[in-house]
Design goal:
Shape: elongated
Number of domains: 2
Distance between the termini: 46 Å
Largest sheet: 3 strands, antiparallel
Low-confidence stretches: 108-116
Mean pLDDT: 82
Radius of gyration: 21 Å
Length: about 190
Amino acid sequence: TANKIRLIPQDFFAELCEQIIQHLNHKIPGVNTAELCQRIQTSGVEINVGDLAKIANILSFLFSTAARNNLSTEELVTTLGSAGSTLPKHAVQVIRHVWNEQGKATAVSEDARSMATVGQFVDMKWKLGVAMSSDTCRSLKYPYVTVTLTVADPSGQITDKSFEMTIPQFKNFFRQFKEMASVLETV
């Protein structure tokens, strides 16, 4: 992983660290590693989304552990050095700077940790379609709804989950949302 971190330009690494801190502080729902990876690749660096997600998970663990143990900036940097860390110098400098600037506000409470094991809903998109035909059936002509949910998993990685529903399934889905809305109004 340290070799992959070496590839990431300092400004992108700093952005990743800042987004992770913001996620831990519940200011953003998660880190969009796919979008960040695309921007890093556009800058000419060869890295894939999986490697960037692993780096984000490691940094998230590092910052949340430091917050849980109330580490100062110097304690964090010393711990990184004493652990036989092979992190590149620019990465340690960025971690030091980000933790010094924003780490003090990071408090990982028990409630936040238990909530973080579930994940967080970010966005939902839907579209209506009609299947005209298939390999096995020449004339289908049935409508369906495709739903794409954007979810931040517990580590803060943002992913899309898509599924299709028939119209009766969608009507049931809609009815359940209306029930949730009416219950939320009473709270």
